[in-house]
Queue: 4 jobs
Job 1
Amino acid sequence: MSPEARQHYEVNPPAALLEVEQTRARWFSGLIELTKPRLSFLSVITALVAYLAAQPGRDFWNLFNFLCGTALSAGGAAALNQWLERHTDAVMKRTRDRPLPTGLVTPAHAFGWGLLLSSVGVSQLWLGTNSLAGMLGLGTIVSYVCIYTPLKRRSRWATELGAVSGALPPLIGWAAAEGSISTLGWILFGVLFFWQIPHFMAIAWVYRKDYAAVSFPMLSVTDPDGGRVALWSMINAILLIAVSLLPTLLGFTSIIYLMAAAALGLWFLLSAGRFMKEAGRDSAARRLFLTTIAYLPLVLAILVLDRWLA
């Protein structure tokens, strides 16, 4: 091929080649989407908060392996979750545009991708930090994929069991930093656990018709007027605030953190209180969801700053 012809080919590639490249790009973006980047990022952040709160030494490779291992484990679990739920995802409006229902990624590729990410992630945690962090990473994946995901079709308590999986990343972070888990690490686990219930109750209420369409026996489906959904959200919000104050009461943080956590907790409770009112419950659920999104990073950031500046 002459230089002129080669240049023309590179500037104006055949349409078939362009289509292949675009298909590959869409397929790769589908693989990335399978990892639920936003949810996985939240897992990494909560794990990092615990890692920093433990005030570890400056070991770059420990931090690198911890972050990569946590991210890969979270992404792998998300991909395997979507592989298991591909049939129900195709029915629900909220999830029907995901890579598997649309056919962007095949089930075999999704399963292999999830298994690969999970295996590499757990191995990196185990070998790059310590065995406890690796076991917690494995436990997170197993509890999320093998317990929570299938239980969503059978039990109203699947949300609470799923909250256990979602609260494990801080323990991974603490274990990676210290090789063990101290009291403050368990407190962070409690914060994440109780935070998730109001967060997911708000989501479940907004999308209750979707969950009913696939016969998920969630509380928002079995409670038509939403009274029990709102009450359960309030109970867990109160427990969340109580646990969030423990770091200062047990001497891990200063009075500054206590005041900030109390103020944020009051804001959270007011939002949960609005959800308790039957009138305007749909809009209150959306507001509670947004409140949960803002509350968590704020209270965790203040805790870490208080620990490092004390």
Job 2
Amino acid sequence: MKNETIVGKNPVIEALRAGRPIDKIWLAEGLRSSQLGPILQLAKEQGVVVQYVPRKRLHEWAPDEVHQGVVATVAAYEYAELDVILANAKAKTGLPFLIMLDGLEDPHNLGSILRTADAVGADGIIIPKRRSVGLTSVVAKASAGAIEYVPVIRVANLVQTIKSMKDAGYWVVGTDAEGSSDYRTLKYDFPTLLIIGSEGKGISRLVREECDYLVHLPMEGRVTSLNASVAASLLMYEVYRQRNPLSLN
């Protein structure tokens, strides 16, 4: 984690003032708000997530540095802008295809999803700022290089982003075990935003309500769910299969 951190009160304040892309700010439990005024204000203005943790955790992350109870984690890679990605997707040949991840917290899953997204030629992946893994070095390693080619967009509000994409002509396909159709019955012949939820919880209620279609993966075994990256891969390849039919000539 050392190569992805900014340590100490003043360095973190200056990084915020400079507009450096920060994933999250970690503060030691017990710090008084009066000590953190500039950090909390700047973080709020920029939409940076702040989380309190035991001081011993900060000691583990910065064992040889005076952290003053303040550590910020920095994205290993830059995030893309949604407007730019939508414009690029519209200009290319073929139907646009983006993936949105709702609450995915495992970096290995995000890395695997990036690999499949690259394989099927997806235009990008959208993640929320809160309750989601960011672009860390673990994600980069798990992606096996795909992180260099698949844009990742980080947004403050998934529901508002979905509404904007609907206005741009996208149809929204969410994954849900209940009240949904077999994923093979849907024809993905439209600009598609595919939403994958977290393992266990799935997609959130507000996101679910914005979906135009809900699909599920049929299962005959005893295990009730698939790993999020496996489910995402199957769904992405179904979109690819339909849009790139096999020629037998």
Job 3
Amino acid sequence: MRLAYTTLACPGWSVEQVAERTREYGYDGIELRLLDGEIFGPDLDAAQRRRVKSVFADAQLPIATLDTSVRIAADEAPAEDLKGWIDLAREWGAPWLRVFGGARDDLTQDQSLDRASRALEQIAPFAEEHGVGIAVETHDVFASAVIVGRVIDRVPSPAIGALWDTHHPYRMGEQPAQVWEALKGRVVHTHVKDARRNGDGWDLVLLGEGEVPVREDLDLLREKGYDAWTVVEWEKKWHPEIPDPEIALPQHIKVLRQWLGEN
């Protein structure tokens, strides 16, 4: 497996600092959710696009994924929105885009699933043509792998797959083997995070210090032949109270390398 982390982990770092620390900590690549600490989109100007491409190319760091905020079940025109993202991903050499399911109060679950699958059907040919895939994350009201599996099962394109976030299916009561079965072997990307229950909520914790079966997830993925990106999603941007990236990112890669038998 190739290991990366998302820039959600380091809202205080510039693009240049991200590249420097990624190399320093020994990650294989980077996933982009923030640029210079802020959410970005495909409307970046040409100078910024060149800057980002140059920084990571010079550091010989591949961009694993671009994390969009597109909600395929809730946004008005998600397929159209994704075209700009696909162009940006192709320019930067990122093979995948992350999307959310999302929901609307005026839609039933079945209607949401229909909207999501239609959006993927609409964008799949464009994605295939441009060599960029769409990964639907187990997140928000699509946190259950069963739900994501039902959506992607309707769109048998190689440009459509699932992003398995290790935390969310677990908090929905799904164990590793159930997640794999629900996603029908179409896991193309993985986010790892650990957490501990705290009343009705969850506290994010350093890897191995919580109850999420991340190691079992990784063991199962390796058993199934998964060799794509495994990405640390340390949500410092949204949870400023958790440890700083200078603590969390070296800890995560050390534990991951140990679990994967690489040191």
Job 4
Amino acid sequence: MTDYGVLLVGCKRSHQESHAAVFAAQPRCRLVAVAAEAGDPEGRVHQYQQLADELNLPFIPDLDEALARDDVHIVSSTPAVERRGAVAVRCLEAGKHVYLDKPLAGSVEDADAIVAASRRAVGRAQMFTQNEAGWVKAARRAVQEGRVGEIKAVHAETLFSKGRAGSVPDATVRREKESVERWTFVEAKREMFDVAVYSLGFIHAVTGLKAESVFAHTGNYFFAEHVGVDVEDFGALAMKLEGGVTATAIGGRFGWMSHPKSGPQRLVVMGTAGTMTFDGFHPRIEVYNDEPDFATPLLDPLDPMGMWGASNPRFEPPPKRRWVGPYEERSTMAADVAAFIDCIERGREPQVNAEVAASLLEVLLAGYISAARNEEIALPLPRDRA
């Protein structure tokens, strides 16, 4: 098949806007409709309608009705974290291929349900990561070619340079909680959850190993918005992987003016034959001319952290053009979607399928428990079998 109908299950001010643009540009796909769950448990039906209107697509307010359509082959699923488990299971049970937002869900129970549904399903499931970036693929090739020898340790980092940093009240100390009651906010995200998942994906890309234990720390260092809704803006994780491999990962957000581009992304692989570093912005060209320097954009009241697309053109951030790297002109999500469709056509399991995505989520959830207790947490996490 060369014409896959794509159903968008997600609304404005979610990652669906970028997913939709990538699927619309993919030659093997066409957008069919925007859909929401019946009764709109998220309470954002107007944002679903708004996305449909902007894309000139029909809006279907009943997911089951949308999934019954014969012209829907792939679902791009980006609901709120709290609804990801229920939505993904319904899409898989309807026989559709599902492209999943990251992280997979908000609980091990939801993740287990998605994994179980994917094992029964005829369709493929893949969670978005940045593992198709050229520099990550270069790291994977280096490891496969034996250029670092036997892996002993890995470090990965991802930080986003968005938002107005420096506003955290003096003497703020993060007090983490073991369980998360709410994931989705307008003004901030849980940054270890939302950003460190990329770093964990990089580690899995080069090792293929699961974590056996986690020790983590979360903090409030940069943004009053995060303090205000009691979520972290930075997180760090140390892990013991299968086979005695050590891994560390960081993820967070640290302000518009903190980096010449979108933020550092780096992977360091240490092995018996040497150490290699892979960087999304190395090598690079640094450009200096009479173009105005980047300036912090006007504060968008609907998106103060710059997490989504600007709600109005006057809030759109100017481009950062001082650094030009070898990978930035290529859309990582476009490459990831293309890889997903290749898996569908070839009957192959995606590299970051539901089971791998669930294992990355479990590391993050264990990280919050560890940060709250200040102790190492063994994996897998216990399940309530009552």
